[in-house]
Amino acid sequence: MTTAARTETFGKVKPRRKGLAALLTHHTFRRLTQLGILLFLVYIAVRHLLAGESGAVTTASWEAYCPFGGLETLYKYVASGGSFVSHVHLSNVVILVAALLTALIARNAFCGWLCPFGFIQDMVSSFSAFIQKRVPVIRKGVRTLKTRGARLVVLDRYLRFLKYGVLAWAVIGAAVYGFMVFRDVDPWAALWNLLELTLGMGTVVLAIVLVASLFVERPWCRYACPLGAATGLVSKLSPFYLKRESEACKACAICTKACPMGLPVHTATTIKSVDCVGCLECVDVCPREGALELKLGIPLIGK
Amino acid sequence: MKVNPFVYGLLIIVLFFGVIGGAKAAGIWSVSGKLTASGEKVAPTGTNVDEIKGWMTLDDVSAAYKVPVAEIVAAFNLPADTPGTTQIKNLESDSFSTVNLRTWLKERLGQ
Q1: pLDDT in tens for each of the 303 residues of chain A?
Q2: How far apart are CA B53 and CA B92, in angstroms?
Q3: Closest CA to A130 of A122, B31, A266
Q4: Rounded to 5°, angle at Cα B52 from B50 and B56
Q5: Could you state, in order of their start, the residue ranges of all structural domains in chain A?
Q6: Are A52 and A195 in contact (CB under 8 A)?
Q7: ipTM computed for the complex
């Protein structure tokens, strides 16, 4: 788009996408990426289950692809000169490096574009929205619940710090005790353990996360995910940020409603929050030309 | 500078999978404790108890560290008829785990 054309359309309502153009969005691209990764892990887990631990062929378990395992073993890996805590392999360290590098350059996009557990929470929330749209009684009930729960919104700000506590506990615990102290309560591990019909404390956490996802988007990512806490902190150094042009923005708050992390996009000038997962749902739904865009600037300064 | 969301998405995928692909190409990749980075089978050497993994059997540990299976079974109050072919992780309980076995072996061998 030329500068003249851009000036002409700046702040105007975007033309409605139709047909194939409505489908070929970065939203579809993101969903396909998330789905692809989840299907890959399902394949890995099922293959490992069928081959068995003592099978003739050595197969990888789903745990070999978890970046957080890399963080939990990091102390032992460095201190012992190359050995890992149980359930962790070299692949976990490599995937951790990939996730951190992605965060360093492209914000916390690992959570928004690649994390399969984030995707599962997104799907549960989408299912909830789908049901609410079609069943008025449920819609009314959820709305009442949300209105009553609005009083607790002040807690949201403080609960978001919880994930840093979980991060410290998981990493320091693994360093001190030599095993993954977080594993027993990890809902991601619990999800895969269901395949082996193994239940535990993690299953309870998983159930809480899935039920909460019916009412709040990405509750695990917002409040408790230790990996998101780590990549979020690294993402502060990324040159990417979101810019809201107040001259074009009509503060309709559609962007804020679309944000799965519950960030107040429509009142901010720039969005550089550690909680932003770079999903760009806000950019996708923004109805005005140039009101909300993804920008590349100088890290930390963001201009 | 404005960035197209598609380009951003592409960058994420290239970065993330690029690092993994690069590591694989360089041989810095292993998805199982049973295999080394070069794909060879791992076997306990008897030199460092930290090498003991949950997938190893009591026989593996016994042969590598020259400690009878019966002694391990007795030390952790495991059922006397526990076969040596049992994997350590399948015996884990409140009183027995891979970590416990490593600690006990370390003391036993004076490492």
Answers
A1: 455 555 677 767 777 777 777 788 889 999 999 999 999 999 999 988 888 766 667 788 888 899 988 888 888 888 777 777 777 888 999 999 999 999 999 999 999 999 999 999 999 999 999 999 899 988 888 888 878 877 777 888 899 999 999 999 999 988 888 778 888 899 999 998 888 888 889 999 999 999 999 989 999 999 999 999 999 999 999 999 999 998 889 889 999 999 999 999 999 888 889 999 999 999 999 998 888 999 998 877 656
A2: 12
A3: A122
A4: 170
A5: 29-234, 239-303
A6: no
A7: 0.88
Chain B nearest CA to A67, separation (Å): 11
Give the global pTM: 0.83
CB–CB contact A295 B3 (8 Å) = yes
Residues of B in contact with A296 (CB under 8 A): 1-3
Q: Would you call B53 an interface residue with chain A, using a CB distance cutoff of 8 Å?
A: yes
Task: Give me A7's structure tokens.
Answer: 């000036």
Structure tokens at B44: 């306990």
Q: Which CATH class is domain A239-303?
A: alpha beta
Contact between A283 and B5 (Cβ < 8 Å): yes
Cβ pair A240:B3 closer than 8 A = yes
